[in-house]
Fold this protein.
Amino acid sequence: MKCRPGLAMRVGALALLLALVLTFVLTFGGGALAAKPKPVQVGSKRFTESYILGAIVTESLAMAGVAAEHRPGLGNTAVLEQALASGGIDVYPEYTGTIVRELLQREGNPSLAQINTWLAPRGLKASAPLGFNNSYALALREADAERLGLATLSDLASPAARGLRLGLSHEFLGRADGWAALQRAYGLPFATPAGLDHGLAYTALEQSQVDVIDIYSTDAKIGRSAVRVLRDDRNFFPRYDAVLLMRTGLDAAPLQGLAGRIDERRMIAMNAAAELDGRPYADVAREFVASLASPTPPAAAAAAAPVASARTAHGFWSRLLADDFARLTRQHLLLVFGSLALAVVVGVPLGVLAWLRPRLGQVLLATVGVIQTIPSLALLAFLIVIVGGIGFVPALVALFLYALLPIVRNTQTGLDGVGAGLSQAARALGLTRWQQLVQVELPLAAPTVLAGVQTAATINVGTATMAAFIGAGGYGERIVAGLALNDTAVLLSGAVPAAVLALVVQGGFGLARRGRDRRRVR
Protein backbone atom coordinates (compact mmCIF):
# COMPACT_ATOMS: atom_id res chain seq x y z
CA MET A 1 0.00 0.00 0.00
CA LYS A 2 2.94 2.34 0.57
CA CYS A 3 3.59 2.42 -3.18
CA ARG A 4 0.26 3.93 -4.11
CA PRO A 5 0.89 7.56 -3.01
CA GLY A 6 4.12 7.66 -5.05
CA LEU A 7 2.35 6.31 -8.10
CA ALA A 8 -0.53 8.74 -7.65
CA MET A 9 1.96 11.58 -7.40
CA ARG A 10 3.63 10.55 -10.64
CA VAL A 11 0.30 10.20 -12.41
CA GLY A 12 -0.72 13.60 -11.09
CA ALA A 13 2.52 15.16 -12.33
CA LEU A 14 1.98 13.67 -15.78
CA ALA A 15 -1.60 14.95 -15.84
CA LEU A 16 -0.36 18.41 -14.87
CA LEU A 17 2.21 18.35 -17.66
CA LEU A 18 -0.43 17.36 -20.21
CA ALA A 19 -2.73 20.08 -18.90
CA LEU A 20 0.02 22.68 -19.31
CA VAL A 21 0.69 21.52 -22.86
CA LEU A 22 -3.02 21.69 -23.68
CA THR A 23 -3.18 25.18 -22.19
CA PHE A 24 -0.24 26.30 -24.35
CA VAL A 25 -1.84 24.89 -27.48
CA LEU A 26 -5.22 26.44 -26.80
CA THR A 27 -3.76 29.79 -25.73
CA PHE A 28 -1.03 30.31 -28.29
CA GLY A 29 -2.10 27.98 -31.09
CA GLY A 30 -5.84 28.34 -31.14
CA GLY A 31 -5.68 32.11 -30.87
CA ALA A 32 -3.45 32.30 -33.91
CA LEU A 33 -5.69 30.00 -35.88
CA ALA A 34 -8.72 32.10 -35.02
CA ALA A 35 -7.13 35.36 -36.14
CA LYS A 36 -8.97 37.13 -38.92
CA PRO A 37 -7.95 37.80 -41.58
CA LYS A 38 -5.39 35.05 -41.85
CA PRO A 39 -2.01 36.72 -42.39
CA VAL A 40 -0.16 36.12 -45.64
CA GLN A 41 2.68 33.72 -44.85
CA VAL A 42 5.96 34.92 -46.40
CA GLY A 43 8.81 32.41 -46.52
CA SER A 44 12.52 32.78 -47.16
CA LYS A 45 15.58 30.55 -47.52
CA ARG A 46 18.66 30.29 -45.32
CA PHE A 47 20.89 33.02 -46.71
CA THR A 48 21.17 36.77 -46.18
CA GLU A 49 19.57 37.93 -49.41
CA SER A 50 16.52 35.72 -48.99
CA TYR A 51 16.05 36.94 -45.41
CA ILE A 52 16.12 40.56 -46.61
CA LEU A 53 13.81 39.98 -49.59
CA GLY A 54 11.35 38.05 -47.42
CA ALA A 55 11.29 40.94 -44.97
CA ILE A 56 10.82 43.43 -47.85
CA VAL A 57 7.81 41.45 -49.10
CA THR A 58 6.36 41.32 -45.59
CA GLU A 59 6.88 45.05 -45.03
CA SER A 60 5.42 45.91 -48.44
CA LEU A 61 2.27 43.92 -47.71
CA ALA A 62 1.95 45.58 -44.31
CA MET A 63 2.26 49.06 -45.86
CA ALA A 64 -0.50 48.08 -48.29
CA GLY A 65 -2.75 47.14 -45.36
CA VAL A 66 -2.35 43.38 -45.82
CA ALA A 67 -1.57 41.37 -42.69
CA ALA A 68 1.60 39.34 -43.24
CA GLU A 69 4.03 37.18 -41.27
CA HIS A 70 7.62 36.39 -42.21
CA ARG A 71 8.79 32.80 -41.70
CA PRO A 72 12.54 33.02 -42.33
CA GLY A 73 15.17 30.35 -42.81
CA LEU A 74 12.93 27.57 -44.16
CA GLY A 75 15.65 25.37 -45.60
CA ASN A 76 16.15 24.67 -49.29
CA THR A 77 14.02 24.86 -52.42
CA ALA A 78 12.37 21.48 -51.87
CA VAL A 79 11.10 22.48 -48.42
CA LEU A 80 9.72 25.78 -49.68
CA GLU A 81 8.05 24.13 -52.67
CA GLN A 82 6.31 21.70 -50.32
CA ALA A 83 5.35 24.59 -48.03
CA LEU A 84 3.71 26.39 -50.97
CA ALA A 85 1.91 23.25 -52.09
CA SER A 86 0.54 22.57 -48.59
CA GLY A 87 -0.43 26.18 -47.85
CA GLY A 88 2.20 26.56 -45.14
CA ILE A 89 3.41 29.70 -46.92
CA ASP A 90 1.87 31.86 -49.64
CA VAL A 91 4.87 33.57 -51.25
CA TYR A 92 8.65 33.62 -51.11
CA PRO A 93 11.52 35.18 -53.13
CA GLU A 94 12.95 32.83 -55.75
CA TYR A 95 15.05 32.94 -58.91
CA THR A 96 13.98 32.06 -62.43
CA GLY A 97 16.90 29.68 -63.00
CA THR A 98 15.96 27.76 -59.86
CA ILE A 99 12.30 27.62 -60.85
CA VAL A 100 13.10 26.36 -64.34
CA ARG A 101 15.72 23.75 -63.45
CA GLU A 102 14.84 22.71 -59.91
CA LEU A 103 11.04 22.93 -59.82
CA LEU A 104 10.10 22.45 -63.45
CA GLN A 105 13.04 20.25 -64.50
CA ARG A 106 13.47 22.16 -67.76
CA GLU A 107 16.36 23.91 -69.54
CA GLY A 108 17.07 27.29 -71.08
CA ASN A 109 16.10 30.85 -70.15
CA PRO A 110 12.35 31.06 -70.85
CA SER A 111 10.30 34.24 -70.46
CA LEU A 112 8.29 34.90 -67.31
CA ALA A 113 5.09 34.27 -69.27
CA GLN A 114 6.35 30.84 -70.33
CA ILE A 115 7.41 30.04 -66.77
CA ASN A 116 3.93 30.91 -65.52
CA THR A 117 2.36 28.68 -68.16
CA TRP A 118 4.42 25.79 -66.82
CA LEU A 119 3.68 26.70 -63.19
CA ALA A 120 -0.09 27.03 -63.61
CA PRO A 121 -0.89 23.27 -63.25
CA ARG A 122 0.92 23.36 -59.89
CA GLY A 123 -1.25 26.20 -58.62
CA LEU A 124 1.73 28.58 -58.61
CA LYS A 125 2.78 31.76 -60.38
CA ALA A 126 5.88 33.96 -60.55
CA SER A 127 5.33 37.70 -60.33
CA ALA A 128 6.98 41.06 -59.66
CA PRO A 129 10.46 40.57 -61.19
CA LEU A 130 12.57 42.57 -58.77
CA GLY A 131 15.18 43.82 -61.24
CA PHE A 132 18.41 41.93 -60.64
CA ASN A 133 20.06 38.68 -61.65
CA ASN A 134 21.75 36.68 -58.88
CA SER A 135 23.66 33.91 -60.60
CA TYR A 136 25.80 31.19 -59.12
CA ALA A 137 29.56 31.46 -59.59
CA LEU A 138 32.77 29.93 -58.28
CA ALA A 139 35.41 32.07 -56.58
CA LEU A 140 38.84 31.67 -55.02
CA ARG A 141 41.37 33.89 -53.26
CA GLU A 142 42.76 36.58 -55.56
CA ALA A 143 46.34 35.68 -54.62
CA ASP A 144 45.80 32.03 -55.59
CA ALA A 145 44.06 32.98 -58.84
CA GLU A 146 46.95 35.26 -59.79
CA ARG A 147 49.60 32.70 -58.84
CA LEU A 148 47.92 29.85 -60.76
CA GLY A 149 46.73 31.94 -63.70
CA LEU A 150 43.02 31.14 -63.21
CA ALA A 151 40.38 33.43 -64.71
CA THR A 152 37.60 31.19 -66.05
CA LEU A 153 35.78 28.05 -65.00
CA SER A 154 37.55 26.21 -67.82
CA ASP A 155 40.86 27.00 -66.12
CA LEU A 156 39.85 24.78 -63.20
CA ALA A 157 40.39 21.78 -65.48
CA SER A 158 44.05 22.74 -66.04
CA PRO A 159 46.91 20.91 -64.24
CA ALA A 160 47.67 24.07 -62.25
CA ALA A 161 44.33 23.77 -60.41
CA ARG A 162 44.57 20.08 -59.47
CA GLY A 163 45.49 20.63 -55.81
CA LEU A 164 42.71 23.07 -54.99
CA ARG A 165 40.24 22.14 -52.24
CA LEU A 166 36.55 22.77 -52.92
CA GLY A 167 34.02 23.92 -50.32
CA LEU A 168 30.54 23.94 -51.86
CA SER A 169 27.16 24.62 -50.26
CA HIS A 170 24.81 21.72 -49.62
CA GLU A 171 22.16 23.05 -52.00
CA PHE A 172 24.66 23.66 -54.81
CA LEU A 173 25.89 20.07 -54.45
CA GLY A 174 22.37 18.70 -54.85
CA ARG A 175 20.85 21.02 -57.45
CA ALA A 176 20.14 19.99 -61.02
CA ASP A 177 22.04 23.12 -62.10
CA GLY A 178 24.71 22.65 -59.45
CA TRP A 179 28.02 20.86 -59.01
CA ALA A 180 27.37 17.57 -60.84
CA ALA A 181 26.13 19.28 -64.02
CA LEU A 182 28.86 21.94 -63.84
CA GLN A 183 31.52 19.26 -63.43
CA ARG A 184 30.28 17.44 -66.54
CA ALA A 185 30.00 20.64 -68.59
CA TYR A 186 33.58 21.72 -67.87
CA GLY A 187 35.19 18.31 -67.36
CA LEU A 188 36.44 19.28 -63.90
CA PRO A 189 38.70 16.62 -62.33
CA PHE A 190 37.68 17.17 -58.69
CA ALA A 191 35.99 14.68 -56.38
CA THR A 192 32.67 15.75 -54.88
CA PRO A 193 33.53 17.64 -51.69
CA ALA A 194 31.76 17.64 -48.35
CA GLY A 195 29.01 20.23 -48.00
CA LEU A 196 29.74 23.62 -46.42
CA ASP A 197 27.09 26.04 -45.19
CA HIS A 198 26.99 29.11 -47.46
CA GLY A 199 27.17 31.45 -44.47
CA LEU A 200 30.56 29.99 -43.49
CA ALA A 201 32.08 29.78 -46.96
CA TYR A 202 33.90 33.14 -47.06
CA THR A 203 35.30 32.61 -43.56
CA ALA A 204 36.59 29.17 -44.55
CA LEU A 205 38.15 30.70 -47.68
CA GLU A 206 39.81 33.52 -45.73
CA GLN A 207 41.22 31.01 -43.20
CA SER A 208 42.58 28.82 -46.04
CA GLN A 209 40.44 25.86 -44.98
CA VAL A 210 39.13 25.63 -48.58
CA ASP A 211 40.35 27.14 -51.85
CA VAL A 212 37.24 27.36 -54.08
CA ILE A 213 33.68 28.14 -53.01
CA ASP A 214 30.35 28.65 -54.74
CA ILE A 215 28.94 32.15 -54.34
CA TYR A 216 26.02 34.28 -55.42
CA SER A 217 26.81 37.18 -57.72
CA THR A 218 25.17 39.61 -55.28
CA ASP A 219 27.03 38.36 -52.19
CA ALA A 220 27.87 41.08 -49.69
CA LYS A 221 31.54 40.13 -49.47
CA ILE A 222 32.33 40.27 -53.18
CA GLY A 223 33.26 43.94 -52.98
CA ARG A 224 35.02 43.68 -49.62
CA SER A 225 36.99 40.44 -49.94
CA ALA A 226 40.11 39.66 -51.93
CA VAL A 227 38.42 37.06 -54.11
CA ARG A 228 38.34 36.44 -57.84
CA VAL A 229 35.05 35.34 -59.39
CA LEU A 230 35.76 32.87 -62.21
CA ARG A 231 34.06 33.77 -65.48
CA ASP A 232 31.48 31.30 -66.77
CA ASP A 233 33.08 31.13 -70.24
CA ARG A 234 30.74 28.40 -71.52
CA ASN A 235 27.58 30.13 -70.24
CA PHE A 236 26.62 27.13 -68.14
CA PHE A 237 24.57 28.96 -65.54
CA PRO A 238 21.14 30.23 -66.62
CA ARG A 239 19.80 33.61 -65.58
CA TYR A 240 18.62 33.77 -61.99
CA ASP A 241 16.35 36.81 -62.11
CA ALA A 242 14.79 37.47 -58.72
CA VAL A 243 11.00 37.09 -58.68
CA LEU A 244 8.28 36.34 -56.16
CA LEU A 245 6.97 32.77 -56.37
CA MET A 246 3.48 32.52 -54.93
CA ARG A 247 0.27 30.53 -54.80
CA THR A 248 -2.10 31.33 -57.67
CA GLY A 249 -4.83 32.55 -55.33
CA LEU A 250 -2.68 35.25 -53.75
CA ASP A 251 -3.39 38.80 -54.89
CA ALA A 252 -0.07 40.03 -56.29
CA ALA A 253 -1.23 43.66 -56.74
CA PRO A 254 0.22 44.95 -53.41
CA LEU A 255 3.62 43.60 -54.45
CA GLN A 256 3.80 45.02 -57.96
CA GLY A 257 5.43 48.17 -56.61
CA LEU A 258 8.59 46.10 -56.03
CA ALA A 259 8.94 45.17 -59.71
CA GLY A 260 12.18 46.50 -61.17
CA ARG A 261 13.08 48.45 -58.02
CA ILE A 262 16.16 46.49 -56.89
CA ASP A 263 19.27 46.40 -59.05
CA GLU A 264 22.37 44.34 -58.31
CA ARG A 265 24.22 47.28 -56.76
CA ARG A 266 21.36 47.97 -54.36
CA MET A 267 21.02 44.30 -53.45
CA ILE A 268 24.75 43.97 -52.73
CA ALA A 269 24.54 47.09 -50.54
CA MET A 270 21.62 45.70 -48.54
CA ASN A 271 23.34 42.34 -48.16
CA ALA A 272 26.46 44.10 -46.89
CA ALA A 273 24.46 46.22 -44.43
CA ALA A 274 23.01 43.08 -42.84
CA GLU A 275 25.91 40.66 -43.14
CA LEU A 276 28.98 42.87 -42.78
CA ASP A 277 27.75 45.94 -40.88
CA GLY A 278 25.67 43.82 -38.52
CA ARG A 279 22.38 45.65 -39.01
CA PRO A 280 19.18 43.64 -38.42
CA TYR A 281 17.90 42.46 -41.78
CA ALA A 282 14.38 43.58 -40.86
CA ASP A 283 15.66 47.16 -40.38
CA VAL A 284 17.44 47.06 -43.75
CA ALA A 285 14.24 45.86 -45.42
CA ARG A 286 12.09 48.43 -43.63
CA GLU A 287 14.32 51.31 -44.73
CA PHE A 288 14.29 50.11 -48.32
CA VAL A 289 10.49 49.92 -48.44
CA ALA A 290 10.27 53.35 -46.84
CA SER A 291 12.66 54.71 -49.48
CA LEU A 292 10.29 53.58 -52.24
CA ALA A 293 7.67 55.99 -50.95
CA SER A 294 10.19 58.74 -50.22
CA PRO A 295 11.02 61.58 -52.61
CA THR A 296 14.68 60.99 -51.75
CA PRO A 297 16.38 59.02 -54.55
CA PRO A 298 17.18 55.41 -53.60
CA ALA A 299 20.95 55.95 -53.77
CA ALA A 300 20.75 58.92 -51.44
CA ALA A 301 18.43 57.09 -49.10
CA ALA A 302 20.88 54.22 -48.93
CA ALA A 303 23.74 56.58 -48.19
CA ALA A 304 21.72 58.28 -45.47
CA ALA A 305 21.03 54.97 -43.71
CA PRO A 306 22.65 54.74 -40.27
CA VAL A 307 25.52 52.44 -41.25
CA ALA A 308 27.18 53.27 -37.93
CA SER A 309 24.83 50.80 -36.22
CA ALA A 310 27.48 48.12 -36.60
CA ARG A 311 27.77 44.79 -34.86
CA THR A 312 29.04 46.38 -31.69
CA ALA A 313 25.79 48.31 -31.36
CA HIS A 314 23.82 45.08 -31.73
CA GLY A 315 25.93 42.86 -29.50
CA PHE A 316 25.11 39.62 -27.79
CA TRP A 317 23.01 41.01 -24.95
CA SER A 318 20.83 43.19 -27.14
CA ARG A 319 20.30 40.23 -29.48
CA LEU A 320 19.58 37.87 -26.60
CA LEU A 321 16.95 40.13 -25.01
CA ALA A 322 15.37 41.25 -28.28
CA ASP A 323 11.60 41.51 -28.66
CA ASP A 324 11.28 37.98 -30.05
CA PHE A 325 12.82 36.29 -26.99
CA ALA A 326 9.50 35.55 -25.26
CA ARG A 327 7.95 34.18 -28.45
CA LEU A 328 10.92 31.94 -29.23
CA THR A 329 11.09 30.69 -25.64
CA ARG A 330 7.40 29.84 -25.67
CA GLN A 331 7.74 27.99 -28.97
CA HIS A 332 10.82 26.07 -27.80
CA LEU A 333 9.22 25.03 -24.50
CA LEU A 334 6.06 23.94 -26.26
CA LEU A 335 8.01 21.82 -28.74
CA VAL A 336 10.19 20.20 -26.06
CA PHE A 337 7.62 19.47 -23.38
CA GLY A 338 4.70 18.84 -25.73
CA SER A 339 6.65 16.14 -27.57
CA LEU A 340 7.99 14.80 -24.25
CA ALA A 341 4.50 14.44 -22.81
CA LEU A 342 3.35 12.54 -25.89
CA ALA A 343 6.46 10.33 -25.73
CA VAL A 344 5.79 9.47 -22.06
CA VAL A 345 2.14 8.63 -22.75
CA VAL A 346 3.11 6.35 -25.66
CA GLY A 347 6.61 5.21 -24.66
CA VAL A 348 5.90 3.86 -21.17
CA PRO A 349 3.11 1.50 -22.34
CA LEU A 350 5.33 0.38 -25.23
CA GLY A 351 8.14 -0.32 -22.74
CA VAL A 352 5.75 -2.36 -20.58
CA LEU A 353 4.62 -4.28 -23.66
CA ALA A 354 8.24 -4.90 -24.66
CA TRP A 355 8.87 -6.32 -21.16
CA LEU A 356 5.77 -8.52 -21.11
CA ARG A 357 6.35 -9.82 -24.68
CA PRO A 358 10.13 -10.19 -25.20
CA ARG A 359 9.90 -11.18 -28.87
CA LEU A 360 7.66 -8.26 -29.68
CA GLY A 361 9.94 -6.15 -27.51
CA GLN A 362 12.89 -6.82 -29.81
CA VAL A 363 10.89 -5.53 -32.76
CA LEU A 364 9.73 -2.44 -30.84
CA LEU A 365 13.22 -1.55 -29.67
CA ALA A 366 14.66 -2.09 -33.14
CA THR A 367 11.99 0.17 -34.64
CA VAL A 368 12.47 3.08 -32.24
CA GLY A 369 16.23 2.60 -32.53
CA VAL A 370 16.11 2.96 -36.32
CA ILE A 371 14.00 6.12 -35.96
CA GLN A 372 16.69 7.56 -33.69
CA THR A 373 19.31 7.13 -36.43
CA ILE A 374 17.38 9.07 -39.10
CA PRO A 375 18.97 12.50 -39.63
CA SER A 376 16.72 15.21 -38.23
CA LEU A 377 16.45 17.21 -41.46
CA ALA A 378 15.58 14.07 -43.43
CA LEU A 379 12.90 13.14 -40.90
CA LEU A 380 11.48 16.67 -40.96
CA ALA A 381 11.33 16.68 -44.77
CA PHE A 382 9.60 13.30 -44.74
CA LEU A 383 7.05 14.46 -42.16
CA ILE A 384 6.28 17.58 -44.18
CA VAL A 385 5.05 15.30 -46.96
CA ILE A 386 3.15 13.01 -44.56
CA VAL A 387 1.53 15.80 -42.52
CA GLY A 388 1.00 18.02 -45.55
CA GLY A 389 2.47 21.19 -44.12
CA ILE A 390 5.34 22.88 -42.34
CA GLY A 391 5.56 24.38 -38.88
CA PHE A 392 4.63 23.13 -35.44
CA VAL A 393 2.94 19.78 -36.20
CA PRO A 394 5.71 18.01 -38.18
CA ALA A 395 8.32 19.35 -35.74
CA LEU A 396 6.32 18.06 -32.76
CA VAL A 397 5.93 14.63 -34.38
CA ALA A 398 9.66 14.44 -35.14
CA LEU A 399 10.64 15.30 -31.56
CA PHE A 400 8.09 12.81 -30.23
CA LEU A 401 9.63 10.05 -32.35
CA TYR A 402 13.17 10.93 -31.22
CA ALA A 403 12.10 10.84 -27.56
CA LEU A 404 10.65 7.32 -27.76
CA LEU A 405 13.87 5.27 -27.66
CA PRO A 406 15.21 6.26 -24.20
CA ILE A 407 11.74 6.04 -22.65
CA VAL A 408 10.82 2.65 -24.14
CA ARG A 409 14.25 1.16 -23.43
CA ASN A 410 14.46 2.44 -19.86
CA THR A 411 10.94 1.29 -19.05
CA GLN A 412 11.79 -2.23 -20.21
CA THR A 413 15.16 -2.17 -18.43
CA GLY A 414 13.62 -0.90 -15.20
CA LEU A 415 10.99 -3.64 -15.18
CA ASP A 416 13.66 -6.24 -15.94
CA GLY A 417 15.48 -5.06 -12.82
CA VAL A 418 12.56 -5.83 -10.51
CA GLY A 419 13.43 -9.02 -8.62
CA ALA A 420 11.37 -12.12 -9.31
CA GLY A 421 10.95 -12.57 -5.57
CA LEU A 422 9.03 -9.33 -5.23
CA SER A 423 6.65 -10.34 -8.00
CA GLN A 424 6.12 -13.72 -6.36
CA ALA A 425 5.47 -12.04 -3.02
CA ALA A 426 2.88 -9.80 -4.64
CA ARG A 427 1.13 -12.81 -6.14
CA ALA A 428 1.20 -14.56 -2.77
CA LEU A 429 -0.60 -11.56 -1.28
CA GLY A 430 -3.40 -12.09 -3.79
CA LEU A 431 -2.67 -9.20 -6.18
CA THR A 432 -3.87 -9.59 -9.74
CA ARG A 433 -1.40 -9.27 -12.62
CA TRP A 434 -2.51 -5.70 -13.27
CA GLN A 435 -2.17 -4.81 -9.58
CA GLN A 436 1.34 -6.28 -9.50
CA LEU A 437 2.33 -4.12 -12.45
CA VAL A 438 0.76 -0.89 -11.21
CA GLN A 439 1.38 -1.19 -7.46
CA VAL A 440 4.71 -3.01 -7.29
CA GLU A 441 6.71 -3.35 -10.50
CA LEU A 442 6.22 0.07 -12.12
CA PRO A 443 6.88 1.99 -8.87
CA LEU A 444 10.11 0.02 -8.35
CA ALA A 445 11.12 0.68 -11.99
CA ALA A 446 10.25 4.39 -11.70
CA PRO A 447 13.85 5.66 -11.13
CA THR A 448 15.05 3.99 -14.34
CA VAL A 449 11.98 5.20 -16.26
CA LEU A 450 12.55 8.74 -14.98
CA ALA A 451 16.17 8.58 -16.15
CA GLY A 452 14.91 7.71 -19.64
CA VAL A 453 12.49 10.65 -19.57
CA GLN A 454 15.35 12.91 -18.50
CA THR A 455 17.50 11.70 -21.40
CA ALA A 456 14.63 12.26 -23.84
CA ALA A 457 14.02 15.77 -22.54
CA THR A 458 17.68 16.71 -22.87
CA ILE A 459 17.85 15.32 -26.41
CA ASN A 460 14.72 17.24 -27.38
CA VAL A 461 16.04 20.58 -26.11
CA GLY A 462 18.91 20.38 -28.60
CA THR A 463 17.01 18.70 -31.43
CA ALA A 464 14.20 21.27 -31.23
CA THR A 465 16.58 23.87 -32.66
CA MET A 466 16.28 22.04 -36.01
CA ALA A 467 12.56 22.85 -36.08
CA ALA A 468 13.44 26.35 -37.33
CA PHE A 469 14.27 24.84 -40.72
CA ILE A 470 10.57 24.15 -41.28
CA GLY A 471 9.17 27.29 -39.69
CA ALA A 472 8.34 25.93 -36.22
CA GLY A 473 10.28 28.69 -34.45
CA GLY A 474 12.17 28.23 -31.19
CA TYR A 475 15.74 29.20 -30.41
CA GLY A 476 16.86 27.50 -33.64
CA GLU A 477 15.41 30.45 -35.55
CA ARG A 478 18.25 32.60 -34.23
CA ILE A 479 20.87 29.92 -34.81
CA VAL A 480 19.81 29.54 -38.44
CA ALA A 481 19.76 33.32 -38.91
CA GLY A 482 23.21 33.63 -37.35
CA LEU A 483 24.62 31.08 -39.76
CA ALA A 484 22.90 32.70 -42.74
CA LEU A 485 24.01 36.23 -41.82
CA ASN A 486 27.44 35.15 -40.57
CA ASP A 487 26.56 36.93 -37.30
CA THR A 488 28.07 35.30 -34.21
CA ALA A 489 26.00 37.43 -31.82
CA VAL A 490 22.73 36.27 -33.37
CA LEU A 491 23.92 32.65 -33.43
CA LEU A 492 24.92 32.75 -29.75
CA SER A 493 21.67 34.45 -28.78
CA GLY A 494 19.94 31.24 -29.86
CA ALA A 495 22.57 28.69 -28.81
CA VAL A 496 23.10 30.02 -25.28
CA PRO A 497 19.39 29.93 -24.23
CA ALA A 498 19.12 26.40 -25.65
CA ALA A 499 22.16 25.31 -23.63
CA VAL A 500 20.82 27.00 -20.48
CA LEU A 501 17.45 25.32 -20.98
CA ALA A 502 19.20 21.94 -21.25
CA LEU A 503 20.98 22.62 -17.94
CA VAL A 504 17.72 23.71 -16.31
CA VAL A 505 16.01 20.53 -17.50
CA GLN A 506 18.86 18.42 -16.14
CA GLY A 507 18.76 20.30 -12.85
CA GLY A 508 14.99 20.00 -12.60
CA PHE A 509 15.10 16.25 -13.01
CA GLY A 510 17.96 16.07 -10.51
CA LEU A 511 15.91 17.97 -7.91
CA ALA A 512 12.91 15.73 -8.57
CA ARG A 513 15.09 12.64 -8.08
CA ARG A 514 16.55 13.92 -4.81
CA GLY A 515 13.08 14.85 -3.56
CA ARG A 516 11.85 11.36 -4.34
CA ASP A 517 14.81 9.82 -2.51
CA ARG A 518 14.13 11.96 0.58
CA ARG A 519 10.48 10.88 0.60
CA ARG A 520 11.52 7.24 0.35
CA VAL A 521 13.92 7.66 3.31
CA ARG A 522 11.16 9.24 5.39
